[in-house]
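Lesson 9: reading folded outputs for more than one chain in a single document. The general rule is that every protein is listed as its sequence immediately followed by its C-alpha cells, and records are never interleaved. Here is the first one.
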Amino acid sequence: MTRKGEYTAGELLAILSARQLKDGQVVFAGVGIPLLAATLAQRLQCPGLTILFEGGVIGAFIEPGKLPPSTNDQRCTTRANMVLGSAEVLLLLQRGYVDVGFMGGAQIDQYGNLNSSYIGDPKKPKTRLPGTGGGNDISSLTNMIVAMKHEKRRFVEHVDFITSPGWIKGKQTRSEAGLLAGGMYRVVTDLAVFGFDETTRRMTPLALNPGVTREQVQENTGFKLEFSHDTGVTEPPTEHELSTLRMLDPERLYIG
C-alpha cells in the first residue's frame, strides 16, 4: 500500500497515459491500463471523451470499483450511448470516426510495431501470445498510444512478428504499404514518454519520468535511443490524479 505522496509504477503509467488524451476525442481502448487511463481522463480533463470498446460498446462511463476484466463484460455498458456488434464498431475505424487507438503490447520495436502473436521462431515459438483481436485494425487506422512496462526484452530492435503495424520500417514505409491514416503517436512506460521522429519515424524519448536517468532508459531498451538536449522530465502525479485513480480502482486490479 502506498503512502501519501508515493505511487506505484502502475499508477504512474495510468496517469501519464491519461494525460495523452484530449477532450472531445474518440478513443478505441483496450483492456487493462488503456481502459483505466481513458476512464481516468474522462474524470479529469476530458469530460467529452468518447470511449469505444471492441466488444461493441460506444460511449462507456465505467463506475468506480467496477472495472471490467474484458471489453466484452457487461460492466462496460454503463451509461453507454449504444451497443453494437464488433464488426460495426470496427467499421467506425474504417470510416474515420476514431481519433486514437490505445493498447498495450508484449513487444515493441524502434518503429512502433507491436507484437502480440508469438515470441521466437514462428515454427516453434518460445511463447504464444493472445494474437491480434482488433489490434491490427486499430493500429492501421488510428493515431496510436501504447502503454507498457519498460523492459529490454519488450523493447527490441525488430519485433518477432508485426501484429499491429506502427511505422513499419520507418520513413514512408507505412504509407507505401497502403496505410494512409494514423500511425504511432506516443509510447508511455514506467520510465519515460516517447514520440516518433517526423522524418525517420524512429522512437524518440520526449520526457523521462521523475528520478529516471538516460542511462537507465537506454539499459532497458534493445535499440539505440537518440536523446535530444531538450528531453524533459514528466510532471509527477498530483494528489488529485492519484485519489481519482484509486477511487476508480480501489482493489488495485490494474495499478498494482
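And here is the second record, again sequence then C-alpha cells.
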Amino acid sequence: MENLEDKFRDHKFVCPGCKGKLDYSNDLFSCPQCKNSWPLVEGLADFRVSKDKYWGEHPEEEIDRLILRCKQVGWSQALRDFFTVSDPEYYDSIIDKMRANWHFLVPLDKDARILDAGCGWGPLSFELASVYKEVIAFDITMQRLRFIDLRRVSEDLNNLTPVCGQVNHLPFPDGHFDLVIFNGILEWIPVMESKINPYLAQLQALKEAARVLKKSGYLYLAIENRWSVINFLGFKDAHSHLRFAPLLPRFLADIYSRVVRKKDFREYTHTYWQQEKILKEAGFSETKFYSPLPAYRRFQFILPLNRVSRTKFFVRHLFRPRDNLQVFFSRIIRLPFVLNLTKYFVPDFSIFAKK
C-alpha cells in the first residue's frame, strides 16, 4: 500500500484561497503567494479554511472511539459493532454499494479522475475507486476521512486519496477532474458557510466544481426537491425538521425557523426551475434530471424526467393496487405522471450537469 505522504510529494494541490501552486516540505503545504500553510494531520492533508466546528451526525467523542476501535479490530467489525444496534439504517447507508449505481449514466472511461466532494464515510468513493483510475474522497470532517484511510489501506486501494477541506474552497487546479460529485451536500453548504447569503454560498460551491472540471466534464448532483410531494403532505423537512418550511418564501421560512429553532433557515433546496437556473449561472451548459426512487440516498430505480413515456410506463407497472384504498392512492400518485408534472413534484433529483 502506497503511503499517502509519499503520494503528496507529487501532489497537484493549489491554495484554497488564491489558487496558487503550493510548495510541499516537512509534511506541510505552503503558498508562496499568500503565505498561508496547511499541515498533514495523521498523514492526511488538511486544507480547511475554518476549523471552528465539528460537522457530523454523531458526537465527535463517539466517532473518535469508533476510529480507535477500527485500528484494533478492523473497520468492518468496528462499524458493525458501533452502528447495527444504535443506527442500523445509517450503517446500511455506509456500506451500500447501490448508492453509486448512477455512474453508468455518465460517459466516463476507466482513466477518469473523480472528486467525491462531501464524501461522508465514502460509500461512493470506494465503489467508484473499484472502477475508475483515481478518486479523491473530500470532506470537511477529519474523523470520517481517518475511517476512509483505514478502510482504503485494508482494501489495498492505492487510487483512493482522502483529503480534508471545504467545497467552497477546493484545493485543486483548474480542469483537473472528469467528474465531481455533490451527493446530498449542496443544501448543507449555506449552514457551513454561515456568513454568506445561502444562495450565493451554493453558487460559489457550484462554480468551484465547474472550475476544477475538465472541459465537457460532469457534475453529479443529488438533492431533495423543494416542491416534493412529501413537503406538500406535511412531513417534516429532512434538514430543518420543520413542516412546510421549504415551500414557504425564503423570508417567511427564515421567520418560522427563528421562532421555532432559534436560528436562520439556510438549508436551501430548489425547485426544478431553480435548480436549472443556479447550475446555468455556475457555468454548466447542459443538465439532465432523473428521479431516484424511493430516494437518492438509497434508491432502487432512477427515472429520466425528460422521457415522459418511460416514466408513465414505469408508474403503470410499479403500482398494482389490491384494495379500494390502494386504488385511491395509486390514482393520486399517477396523476402528476399523466399530466406530465412529474419533474416538478418528485421527492428527489439526481442531476447530471455538463460543463
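What the second record shows: The longest helix spans residues 198-212.
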